[in-house]
Amino acid sequence: MVREISSQQNKILPAAVTLFICIILAILIWRLLGEEHRNDQKELLKIHAETFASYVTTDISDKLPALGRMAHRWTERGGTPKDEFEADALHYIDDIPGIKAIEWVDPTYYVRWVVPLLGNKEALNLNLGAEEKRRESLEEARDRMTPTLTKPVDLVQGGKGILVYFPIFVGDRFDGFVLVVFDTQEWLDHALRNGRSLHEFEDYQIAITIDNERVFQTNGYQYQISNEWFTKANTKILGHAITVSIYPTAHFLAHDKRISAEMIGLAFAIFGFILSGLVFYLQKASTATKLAEQVNEVLTHESRDRLAAEKKANAANEAKTRFLAAMSHEIRTPLNGVLGVLQLLEKREFPEDVREKLKTAQHSGVFLLALVNQVLDFARIEAGAVEVIEEDFTVSSLMADLHSLFSTQAEQKKLKFEYAVKGSPNLWIFGAYEPIKQVLFNLIGNAIKFTDQGSVTIYADIQEEADGRARLQFDVVDTGKGISEEEQTLIFDAFKQSETGRTSRMGSGLGLSISKNLTNMIKGKIEVKSKVGQGTTFTMWIDVAIAKEQKAPVQECSEVNIASPLKILVAEDNDINQMIIEEMLTSDGHDFVLAENGDEAVKKACQNGLSFDLILMDIQMPVMNGIEATKAIRRQIPDTEILPIYALTANAFKNQMDEYEAAGMQGTLTKPIDRPKLRSVLLRISDHKKEMELNTVVDIPLGKQAL
Ligand code: ADP
To answer: pTM score, two decimals?
Structure first.
């Protein structure tokens, strides 16, 4: 719990620090930019104040020459009649805003003419000399003979004003002044508005003083010394000090914001929030990554452990396979002896009761061998040691082979045993011959085993399909005891038997499990249909390729079809096996030459190499084993067609067969030797020999074969 809280804090801390830094930065930026912006605004204010001051001077400088023309005309003409003066003056008053009155002041400083009289009556006959400010300007203008401007005065008409005096001289005669009275509020208001747009004018509160006396101010102007925006600009007109004081209105401050410092500061603060959120998220993500890494590490450990365990299991499996291989060899070798001797004794004359006992012994031996073979097959499948090899075959020859294998057994049980091939029986197929054969072998064996009367029939159907493929269907139909529905679901499992199977005490419960596994391996399907008391049908389907080369149909390999005499070198150290194989070969008319070990076999083969048709090579032999001996022979006689070598062994595992092949052998005959299989090999070799002698094309493959 404490750890959780501190880890939560660890996640929040960097984000909080980031946020804090960003907010500080935002404030700094806001202040710096704000300061800079204020300075810019103040600078702008100053410029505007100066501009306003320049408007004032420009305006008056523009107007003075025009007004001066009235005095000039007087001078030129030696006087101006009153009505003319008045008309002229009215004209100027209309044209120039801010002029309150234009007057003629006589040389004694009395105002004699006033235009317009309306509103200016008080000025008529006013003695200007009586008031100091006015008199000073009058005297200055007269004495210097130039227009002068008074300091601001209180106008008799009301309000503040300034007076401009234009002295009039006709020759040396002084004729008084043309006096222009400016209402400063109106005049300056106009002068300022004239220069600026109304919008800009609204940005400021403006006050103007002439000689420190306020003569103009905008509506709402309040002098505040504390106002930091308060800005002044000074100028001079005709010796008078003009000061323009301005400060910005809210209007100015509002519209001059542009991208204000506050906004940038705010943006930065928002950015800070986002960044800190990001930091928080990244922190969280990195914690999650760390966690994932930790979990990964644990998983890696676990998977390492699992791999180690798997390795161990594989090693154990391999050990099991090796053990089974060794065991099967150890069991098969003496069994070979027993069965071989029993087979030999079959030919001798014995009393009937002995003959019966011998038969029982032989049956038991065959049953034991089948059991050993099944256990071995099961172990091989379990260990994944079975490799599917595809080869060319015809269904008719497969059927014939199977039929011949079981015909004696069926005969003994007085069963009708037949097969029928539908479709294209002699079509050469390229497929998994051995597994198909083994499955059918199991099914036919079972059918005969569990049928006491009636028949066992094998139906084969070959349907050619598109793309060079064919579909094979095999039905093994018997009229035996049948299997209950409940038992039908179990019998494909290893070591599972039906009631019938158990009571028959013939079998291991492995045959169908092996068949199912093999069918799966070759991507086929196997099914059972049965009714108790009515018989059973096992069906197998398998898709195969049609062989590229369609050869002539093979002759059936049967007892009748025995190979023509061959000269065979047999390398075998075990004397019982020697006896059995000698009997099997010589009784079929073959020439048997014995080598007691591998070394002797090499010597005999190489001395008389070309005179042997075949070598049957035991593997485990003293002095030199079968593999070494084969390698040595192959160095002398590499041509496998001239001298084929077949392994003769109880070691029937695939990797071992591969080893024999690599050493230079062409096939394997497993012990105890099955006579029909031996005969089939011999027949192939004799046929091949004949073809070689006839110098025709060799078709019969002498490739790898396990029989
Ligand atoms: P087993 O070695 O016992 O024959 P299988 O796996 O080949 O083992 O068969 C399993 C069981 O299925 C047999 O024990 C038997 O009960 C039953 N079974 C198989 N084939 C047949 C059949 N053709 N007729 C009746 N029962 C059969």
So the answer is: 0.46
Q: Which atom of ligand 1 is nearest to the CA of 494?
A: 6
CB 51 within 8 A of CB 246: no
Contact by Cβ (8 Å): 681, 646? yes
Packing angle, helices 2-77 and 184-195, rounded to 10: 120
Residue 402 Cα to ligand 1 middle (Å): 18
Looking at the predicted structure, is the pLDDT value of residue 104 above 90?
yes
DSSP string covering 483-514, please?
Answer: --HHHHTTTTSTT---HHHHHHT---S-HHHH
Q: Which atom of ligand 1 is nearest to the CA of 508?
A: 2
For ligand 1, is residue 706 a contact (CB within 6 Å)? Answer: no
* Average pLDDT score over residue span 626-636: 91
Which of 32-36, 276-280, 415-419 is the most confident on average? Answer: 415-419
SS3 of 357, please?
helix
pLDDT at 19 over 80: no
Q: How far apart are CA 606 and CA 600, in angstroms?
A: 10
d(CA 186, CA 118): 17
Q: What was the pLDDT predicted at 617?
A: 92
Q: Is 243 left (phi over 0), alpha (psi -120 to 50) or beta?
A: beta
Beta strand spans in 116-159 (E): 148-149, 153-154
- Whether residue 4 is predicted with pLDDT greater than 50 in this model: the reply is no
Kindly give the distance from the C-alpha atom of residue 501 to the centroid of ligand 1, in angstroms, as a whole number: 6
Integer CA distances (angstroms), 156 to 56, 103, 119, 159, 704, in order = 24, 13, 10, 8, 142
Task: Please tell me the chain's helix, strand, coil percentages from 3-state DSSP, rounded to the nearest 5.
Answer: 50, 20, 25
Instruction: Write out the H or E segment, with its range, that includes residue 241.
Output: strand 240-248
CA of 499 to the centre of ligand 1 (A): 9
Confidence label for 470 from pLDDT (cuts 50, 70 and 90): very high
The percentage of residues in the chain with a pLDDT greater than 90, rounded to a whole number, is 22
Report CA-CA distances (Å) from 676 to 256, 354, 558, 561: 114, 26, 7, 10
Q: What angle do CA 267, 273, 275 make, to 5 degrees?
A: 100
Peptide bond into 116 cis (omega under 30): yes
128-154 confidence digits (pLDDT tens)? 888 888 888 888 889 988 888 888 988
188 in contact with ligand 1, CB cutoff 6 A: no
Per-residue pLDDT, averaged over 291-307, amounts to: 81
The CB of 445 under 6 Å from ligand 1? The reply is no
**Closest C-alpha to 178, from 166, 169, 189, 161:** 166
Q: Which of 2-16, 24-38, 264-278, 628-642 has the lowest mean pLDDT?
A: 2-16
Pairing state of beta strands 391-394 and 428-431? antiparallel
pLDDT score at 12: 73
Select from 522, 417, 538 the least CA-distant residue to 473.
538
